[in-house]
Amino acid sequence: MVIFYYLVFVVFITVVFAKANRLLPVFAFLFSLATLHLLTTLGLNLIIVWVVGVLLLLFNLVLFIPFFRFLFIKPMIAKLVGQSKSLISDSEKIAMECGDTHWEKQLFTNQLKWDELLAVKSEPLSDEEWIFIKHKVSALCATFNKFGLSDKTLTQIKSEGFWALNIPKQYAGLEFSAKAHAKILTLLSSCDVSLAGNG
Questions:
Q1: Among 32, 78, 116, 189, which lies 20 to 30 A Cα-Cα from 56?
Q2: Is residue 122 assigned to a domain?
Q3: Is residue 163 within 8 Å of 155, Cβ to Cβ?
Q4: Domain boundary among 30, 62, 86
């Protein structure tokens, strides 16, 4: 019967404190008292009661006192985080480590270093990129203006390589520079935004 009352009490305090994360130490304290009361009522060996009591005391100290949380919980979390980092794949690691904020950070923090920004050299577009922009972009805009975003327009986008602007040539792409890609999207946007979204 004592075990039944114990279980009812534990379920009751669990329901009461389930949505109150800040009161977790109070829940742990009440649970510890109920557990010790159960063990003593059942007449278990005093060594078992003392061992369980010490473990519950340490558990409550960790929850109640920030120093003990720092001492016990932080190393466990650090170890778990260290293990989770090792689970990152090579491609995810490369993606996380590549690039930086460059001058965008300076812009948003209002600390622009103009000498660095002006020192960035812009490579001119290649002849192949200029020819593509001059002929194929204008032809696609003309098709779009005449037929809209139809099957004919989508076929032209596919056949002329608009979906492969920055893909390397070894994979049947055009391997254009980022500058050329931006220029092409800008021109397509001036024709229609939905056209640039398919480019």
A1: 78
A2: no
A3: no
A4: 86
Distance set, CA 101 to CA 97, 106, 109, 115, 182 (Å):
12, 9, 12, 17, 19
* Collapsed DSSP state (helix, strand, coil) of residue 54: helix
Nearest to 128 by CA among 185, 197, 184: 184
Query: Residue 170, Cβ neighbours under 10 Å: how many?
Result: 7
Q: Kindly give the confidence (pLDDT) of every residue in the chain, 199 residues in length, as a single tens digit, with 9 standing for 90 and above.
A: 777 777 777 677 666 666 666 666 777 777 787 887 777 777 777 788 788 878 877 777 666 666 666 666 666 666 766 555 555 677 777 766 666 666 777 878 888 888 877 887 778 889 999 999 999 999 999 998 898 888 998 899 888 988 888 888 888 888 898 889 889 999 988 888 877 776 5
Look at the chain and report how many structural domains it folds into. Answer: 2
Structure tokens at 112: 């622009």
Could you say which of 86, 105, 137 is where a domain stops? 86
* Separation CA 195–CA 31 (nearest Å): 64
Alpha helices in 18-88 (DSSP H): 24-41, 46-64, 66-68, 74-86
Q: How far apart are CA 145 and CA 125, in angstroms?
A: 27
